[in-house]
Design a protein that fits this description.
Blueprint (H helix, E strand, L loop, with lengths): L5 E5 L3 H14 L11 E5 L6 H6 L6 H13 L4 E3 L9 H6 L8 H11 L5 E6 L2 H5 L4 H5 L3 E4 L3 H16 L3 H17 L5 E3 L4 H5 L11 E3 H14 L1
Parallel strand pairs: 1-2, 1-3, 4-5, 4-6, 6-7
Helix pairs in contact: 1-11, 5-11, 8-9
Length: 234
C-alpha cells in the first residue's frame, strides 16, 4: 500500500487519460483495493492544442498546466504524471512553477526500452508534429546511446497525424491501419523498437493485430504508469 497520492494532469486527450488510469490500476501489483495507488485525475480537454501552440502560434497552454498542477497539489498530490507527450514541451516551465516532482514521460519511455532489453541502437519514435518538432525525444535518448529515427514529413501528413486525429475522434479501430503502417516503415528503416510517443498512438495500435508489426513497441501510457508505480512504491 502507498500513502503517496499521484496527481494526473490529463485531458490531452480524454481517452488517453482514461487509459492511463486503467493501466495504472492493472499494472499495480495488488490483491485488494487498499493495495492500489491513491490518485487524483484532472482531465480538462479545454487545454489549448499543444501542437498548434508550438507550430502555429496558437494559445499557450502553460497557464492551464500550472493551474491544474496547483489544483492537484491542493488535492494532496505528491507528484505529477502527464499522459500527454507534447505537453512535455513545457516541462521546464511546469517544474519551475511547482515544488512537486513531475515524472517525465520520455525518461519513462527510456526505462521501458531498457526493461525490454533494448539499451542502444536505432529506435523509431512516433509522435505529434509538435513533439517531433520540439525534439522531446532525440536528445534524451541520444544521451543514452540510442540513434533516433522519426517518420518523414509525408508519413506524418498521410499516416501519423491522421491516425492520431482518428483516436481523438473516438474512431479507434480506424486508426490502426495508418499508425501500424508508420510503425512498420520505421521498422523497415532499421528500428530495433518503436516508441509510441503520443498517448493516442497506443490506443490505435492496440486496436488491431499489433504483434504483426514485428518490432518491440514502447507504449508511453504503460511506461508512464510503471514510472508512477515506482514513484509510489519508493
Amino acid at each position: 500500500m502507498s500513502d503517496k497520492i499521484l496527481g494526473v494532469l490529463g485531458g490531452m486527450g480524454p481517452l488517453a487519460s482514461a487509459q492511463f488510469m486503467l493501466r495504472l490500476t492493472l499494472l499495480t501489483p495488488a490483491e485488494r483495493d487498499q493495495d492500489h495507488i491513491p490518485a487524483v485525475l484532472w482531465s480538462d480537454p479545454r487545454v489549448p492544442d499543444r501542437t498548434a501552440a508550438r507550430l502555429q502560434g496558437g494559445e499557450d497552454p502553460l497557464p492551464w498546466f500550472t493551474r491544474a498542477i496547483a489544483e492537484l497539489k491542493a488535492a494532496g498530490a505528491g507528484a505529477i504524471a502527464i499522459p500527454c507527450n507534447t505537453a512535455h514541451g513545457w516541462y521546464d516551465q511546469m517544474v519551475a512553477a511547482t515544488d512537486l516532482p513531475i515524472l517525465h514521460i520520455v525518461d519513462a519511455a527510456a526505462e521501458d526500452l531498457a526493461r525490454q532489453g533494448i539499451r542502444s541502437g536505432r529506435v523509431g519514435v512516433m509522435g505529434t508534429a509538435g513533439t517531433l518538432a520540439m525534439r522531446l525525444y532525440q536528445p534524451r535518448l541520444e544521451a543514452l546511446g540510442y540513434e533516433v529515427i522519426v517518420p518523414d514529413e509525408a508519413e506524418m501528413q498521410s499516416l501519423v497525424s491522421p491516425g492520431i486525429a482518428l483516436v481523438k475522434a473516438n474512431k479507434v479501430t480506424e486508426a490502426y491501419a495508418p499508425l501500424a503502417e508508420a510503425a512498420g516503415r520505421l521498422r523497415d528503416r532499421g528500428a530495433a523498437a518503436v516508441v509510441l510517443g503520443c498517448t493516442e498512438i497506443p490506443l490505435g495500435i492496440l486496436a488491431g493485430p499489433y504483434a504483426e508489426i514485428g518490432v518491440p513497441l514502447v507504449d508511453t501510457i504503460d511506461a508512464l504508469a510503471l514510472a508512477s508505480i515506482r514513484w509510489a512504491r519508493s
